[in-house]
Amino acid sequence: MDKLQAIVDQYQKVPGGLIEAFHAVQDEYAYIPEEALRRLAKAFEVPLARAYGIASFYSYLSLKPRGQYIIRICKSAPCHVKGAAEVVKTLEEELAIRMGETTPDQLFTLEFTECVGVCAETPVITINGEPYGDLTSAKVKEILAQYRQPQ
Amino acid sequence: MVNLTIDNISVSVPSGSTILQAAQAVGLKIPTLCYHPDQTVKANCRVCLVEVEGARGLQAACSQTVVEGMVVRTSTPLVFKARKAVVELILARHPQDCLNCVRNGCCELQDLAQELGIREIPYAREIKGMPQDKSTPSLVLDPDKCILCRRCLTVCQEVQTVNALGLRARGYQTSVGPAFYQQLNESTCVMCGQCTQVCPTGALAEREEIDKLLDALADPSKIVVTQMAPAVRVALAEEVGLPTGELDMLTLVGGLRRLGFHRVFHTNFTADLTIMEEGHELLERLNNGGTLPMLTSCSPGWINFIETFYPDLLDNLSTCKSPQQMFGALVKTYWAQKAGVDPAQIYSVSIMPCTAKKYEAARPEMQDSGYQDVDLVLTTREIGKLFRMAGIDLKQVPPSEFDPWMGAYTGAGVIFGATGGVMEAALRTVYEVVTGNELANLDFTVCRGMTGIKEAEVDLAGTQVKVAIAHGLGNARQLMERIRAGEADYHFVEIMACPGGCIGGGGQPRQTDNAQRAIRIEAIYQEDVALALRKSHENPEVKQLYTEFLGQPLGDKSHQLLHTHYQAKSKKLK
Amino acid sequence: MREEKRISLKHYGLIDPDQIEDYLEHGGYQSLQKALSQPPAAIVQAVKDAGLRGRGGAGFKAGIKWGFTLQTPAEQKYIICNADEGEPGTFKDRLIMEGDPHLVLEGMAIAGYAVGASKGYIYCRGEYPYIVKRLKRAIEQAREKGLLGTNRFESNFSFDVEVRMGAGAYICGEETALIESLEGKRGEPRSKPPFPGVAGLWGKPTVVNNVETLAAVPWIIEHGATAYQQIGASRYPGTKIFTLTGDVARKGFCEVPTDVTLRELVYDFGGGVAGGKKLQAVQVGGTSGAFLPESLLDTPADLDSMAAVGGTLGSGAVLVVDETRDLVDLAVTIASFFKHESCGKCTPCREGTFQLHRLLEKISRGQGSRQDLETLERLMWIMTQASFCGLGHTAPTPILTMLQYFPDPFNNRVNSQAG
Ligand SMILES: Cc1cc2nc3c(=O)[nH]c(=O)nc-3n(C[C@H](O)[C@H](O)[C@H](O)COP(=O)(O)O)c2cc1C
Ligand code: SF4
Ligand code: SF4
Ligand code: SF4
Ligand code: SF4
Ligand code: FES
Ligand code: FES
Hints:
The structure holds three protein chains of three kinds.
Chain A: H1 2-11, H2 18-29, H3 34-43, H4 48-55, E1 69-74, H5 77-81, H6 84-95, E2 108-113, E3 125-127, E4 130-132, H7 137-148
Parallel strand pairs in A: 1-2
Antiparallel strand pairs in A: 1-3, 3-4
Chain B: E1 2-6, E2 9-13, H1 19-25, E3 49-52, E4 59-60, E5 71-73, H2 77-92, H3 108-116, E6 139-141, H4 151-159, E7 166-168, E8 175-177, H5 194-198, E9 204-206, H6 210-218, E10 223-228, H7 232-239, H8 249-259, E11 263-264, H9 267-287, E12 294-295, H10 300-309, H11 323-339, E13 346-352, H12 356-361, E14 376-379, H13 380-389, H14 411-414, H15 421-435, E15 453-460, E16 463-471, H16 473-484, E17 492-496, H17 514-530, H18 540-550, H19 556-561
Parallel strand pairs in B: 1-5, 10-11, 10-13, 12-17, 13-14, 16-17
Antiparallel strand pairs in B: 1-2, 3-4, 3-5, 6-9, 7-8, 15-16
Helix pairs in contact in B: 2-3, 7-13, 9-11, 9-15
Chain C: H1 20-25, H2 30-36, H3 40-50, H4 62-71, E1 78-83, H5 92-99, H6 101-115, E2 119-124, H7 129-144, E3 160-165, H8 175-182, E4 206-210, H9 211-223, H10 225-229, E5 232-233, E6 236-237, E7 239-246, E8 252-257, H11 262-269, E9 279-284, E10 290-292, H12 303-308, E11 317-322, H13 327-341, H14 347-364, H15 370-386, H16 390-394, H17 397-405, H18 407-415
The complex binds flavin mononucleotide, iron/sulfur cluster (4 copies) and FE2/S2 (inorganic) cluster (2 copies).
């Protein structure tokens, strides 16, 4: 894991940089593999139990493998009243997985999120951090089609 | 000083005091759960609620500091209602398994529910349903019973610096345990049991093995022998309703016989023996350029710690087994021979202040007698339970003598129970062995007391010997860092895993806080001065053991039975 | 009709946020230069005189806060810009940082000069990776221009800024939890006192201010305290950005003087209820805010007026709920938010948010009883009384105000339960 070493080197000296390093690991692997957590804990001289406590505190950090595209559906009140449930339904049907799951081809993972701050365009999803708003079933299908195309 | 009134009583306390401290100063009890007198304030349980005039909402007495003119009320209907409402919330997700629980009758949560008169929980009960962790021979972690007070975390992370335990997830899913939801035996846990000392509930407790003893006692083919550690007697008194230290040794022997033990011996005997072996090992290292400083090896929590965190310093570790294991190896060889019994019949039980001893006894290294040297380890708490189960009132039991050959001991063996005791005992013997002179004053008071790291320099017939003593693994870690860095020029270092030494062990009666530790230490030194013999090399049965069986300290037989080598733990753990 | 007045959003949509030159052409960093020509205490005084109060929700007086830190001697002090913006329905801080990142940096630098801090952090929520990029770019540009970085000013003042990304925890908007998170730990709140102003990041005196608060500072320095003080409500002067969401005809935002009323916000700026439906309720202040009925729409939206009707101004989010919405269902959603976002440190909130969600779900399913409503009251009472931090204190607010102003949906649901 050379990429991991690069991350360690970049953040090791940053005071309190462990969470930044977690972000970097996640950008690379879509989640935080056990091996990476152990390596980072050692590099930051944070005991493993504490490092795990930190990683498992934040909902943006995942300790289980995820797909290439992480689709997060906002379920906070403003999105909820504007039809987040409909978006969930469409996504689950289109991808044939349930919330929290990853497609067998490892392409998509479905997760809930709380408000992502795009509330003038409710309901909202983000795909790898990129927000998509004013969603309808049709629009969701269109977006998925874009991501499904081999790039 | 700050002046305030609590329940209309005027109080004057130093500034910076909390409401809780001020209330204690005038004898008012405010219930607490996350508060622990030896720990930093966490203020997370919210049961210590009180009313403060002019404040928004109720205040947590354990964290709120007093201000001049403050008006506090600790027992109003509102306060009771609030405390109840908090405890109800805890109980709504608590197993309420009291009748089957290791803490039944000695549980802070149970007591609190009792005191508050909780009769009904308005919420449908839903427990987390997490598996119990019985992966180690020493402990049971039952996350469902955890109330997330975090007292164990302070101990495991800050006092012991082991960091086996941590928090996992957040919010209502938060739990306490090793990383990745692994089991304790996959973590850095050294099984010191200090967490079980501070846990207010049955979430972290010793692994109870009373039934194994009952089975052995019921088996007519077994000869059940017992040894008890130096720190047991003083603290066991607390379990049986006597003041610390006031349980008479021979009465205890009588009580153990009533429980059905066939032979009763004392670990103090092998503590004296340890001094003979370890003292000579030190002299040998000093004379022959051996690895220094030599580190004591009688605390199994410490052994686990050095194996895990400082494997590079294992050569510094004395090769002596702990007194418990020396005893175990001898009872199935030396004693069996003398008594003319088949060692296979012997069921060897030790009564220990320590949870790590359970693990030590089960180690594969510990079969030098040809059998598992020690078959069962019960903690002081378990033996207290056993006395209650058997209905034996130790205040009314007639005294009885120890069985011959492995029950005699000196004051040097006794003080093994307190931090600095091994060092002091060793110095008493080493001094006389080296100088050939009798010590004028046996009390090496520099070795005593609760200071985390103690250092001294002793003159042995012209040779200055530098020694250090650490208790509690956080202090041990500090010393190891210095030794590793080559910054320490000690010759001999005593380490005890538990704060205060074995009197503060993980298997001792609850609640073992620092105040209680000090009281027990006092009782240990009182026992020492009251004894006629106070130097290990004067122990008559130890002398007899050398003449009849071992030959001499560090002889072949000693090496075979009383010494061992430890190995680095394969460490993914840290 | 009421008009917008843009202070924090003064350049929004008018400049290219990725070009520092654009900002400089619009007078950027001149407030900083102006501030540097005065003694730090004078800047603190100006912010005090302006009456600027925190826009992050609590409304603490910024000048007083800065004063504490200025008066606490220390080798190192810090400015933290709170850009965690986790309150659902809120995106005002995003708008500011997106449209005018240098304004935030300039506000921070002035704060740093005023209190004696040489280092600033922007703690930006993880949900805004694109904003983090923009901020980092802006910082680079400011460094190149010698506006940030080491010892760049004649006055010997140096100030640098680093951006840190949150990782999905609403509680990290609470200032002490934020500090813990910045230190690389679990984002759990600390006991106060000590307050961050005295002992904050790494134990050093630290000013924590919201993005919108800091973004108002350059304007105050430029136009003077009195000019600011005269805008809006006298006890909560200035402007406030409101975000309009839910069943409003025109979802969006506006920056207006603080004496605006809820009615003006919903009808003048939001165009009223969408689809010609009737208004059922507005929730003001984000998900931890109060649900208010039509009859209170003429209440001014400033902090004190809102508090007077049992509400909060909070983040300035306004959620419009039309007559067709099921409030009980909405209550379940809100409770689910708090259950998910409670840090888990203290009993009343950790267990309380869990039970709150469960009870409301039960009621929503039509399986609740009168008894459950009483339990609900008791539960919310203990959460507000005994929780460790603001999250637990305020989590019941939306439900309490629903029960206060809209009891019928709950009573009906409970009564529909046979027996
Ligand atoms: C649960 C909770 C969440 C909060 N979230 C935010 C937030 O997202 N942004 C913010 O600026 N302040 C938030 N605050 C308020 C901060 O603690 C703090 O008061 C504020 O950042 C101070 O800045 P100000 O005085 O400029 O408003 C939150 C407080 C609590 C209790
Ligand atoms: S931990 Fe205490 S309250 Fe819980 S089941 Fe055991 S004895 Fe009962
Ligand atoms: S036994 Fe000791 S090391 Fe193990 S979890 Fe408990 S305190 Fe930590
Ligand atoms: S295991 Fe015990 S000591 Fe540790 S947090 Fe839970 S209840 Fe407290
Ligand atoms: S109220 Fe308690 S549990 Fe809730 S967020 Fe604050 S500290 Fe955490
Ligand atoms: S509520 Fe869904 S993006 Fe804000
Ligand atoms: S004892 Fe005070 S909050 Fe736990």
